[in-house]
Structure formats: structure tokens, C-alpha cells
Amino acid sequence: MKTHFKTLIIASMLAGAGFSAFAYKEGGHMMDGSPRMERGQRMDAAKMEEMHAKRSADLKGKLKITAAQESAWNSFASAMKPPARDAQKRPDRAELEKLSTPERLDQMRAMRTQHMADMQAAMNKRDDATKALYAALSPEQKKLFDAEHSRMGGHQGGKHK
Question: Is 33 left (phi over 0), alpha (psi -120 to 50) or beta?
Fold first, then answer.
């Protein structure tokens, strides 16, 4: 009796997991309608730029940016743009294969360190541009910006709540 019960529970769990995976994958979109990316897959640069431009235009329209705020807005919008593909350099596999394991590890560590420094610089640039824009907003615009920014998880391009 116990083995039948365990088998039934396991079968139910597997069926539920399979159904969840099917329901999640069906349609190729997440619940919010955004395209789903498979693990390891990169979004097309043009599509990413298009999505950024749409979000940026939507936010600018909601905030009703004035001519006096345009400069701060442009700096903000520019800082929020996704990095160009060229900025995300990949190691040359042929060159790495020529190195010994310790040399390869040192090379990868140096590349990782540089990548982290580049990411930190980009995040600082975004933070500074956001603060500059925020300082230029009216109290009503600040309330709207706060609501929009928290909805985005505190940063552009993040997972929407």
C-alpha cells in the first residue's frame, strides 16, 4: 500500500512539473508578454535597443519632461542604454588554448576583474544620471518616477514585478 501511495505522489509531482513547464513555455512569452530567452541565448541587439527606446519614450511621456529638464533626461536616457555588443569582449579561445592552465587562469581572472570594473563604472554612471534627473524633476514628477522606478525593481531593464 505504501509503495503505491509513493508512486502516486511521484507521478503527480512529475505530471504537475511537466504541465507547469508546458504552460510556461507555451506561446514563447512570459506572463507579461515579453519574449522569453532560452538559457545562454542573447537578445538581438536591435530588439533590445527597440525595447529600451519604447520604455524610455513611455517614461518620458508619463513624466511630461519639460524643455528645462531635457538635458538631464537625455543624460539619463543615454546612461540607461544597454551596452554595445562590442563592449562585451569575449576571450580568444585559440589564444587561451596556447596558455598553460595557471596562465589561462590568470588571464581569465584579469578579464573578470576588468569586466567587473566596467560593470561598476556603468552602474555608477547610471546612478549619477538618475540622481541628476531626479533633482531636476518637480515633486509630482518625483512621485511618478519613484513609482515607476520601484516597479522596475530599482533599475532599468530589470525583471518587472
Answer: left
Domain that holds residue 79: 44-83+91-151
What cell numbers appear for 46 in the block? 536591435
Using alpha carbons, select from 91, 84, 98 the residue that is nearest to residue 112.
91
- The answer to the question of residue 128 being in a domain is yes
Whether the model pTM is above 0.85: no
Q: What is the pLDDT of residues 57-92, one digit of tens each?
A: 999 999 999 999 999 999 999 888 877 765 557 778
Phi-psi region of 89 (alpha: psi -120 to 50; beta: other; left: phi over 0): beta
Task: Report the C-alpha gap between 156 and 81 in whole angstroms.
Answer: 9
Q: Is residue 8 part of a domain?
A: no
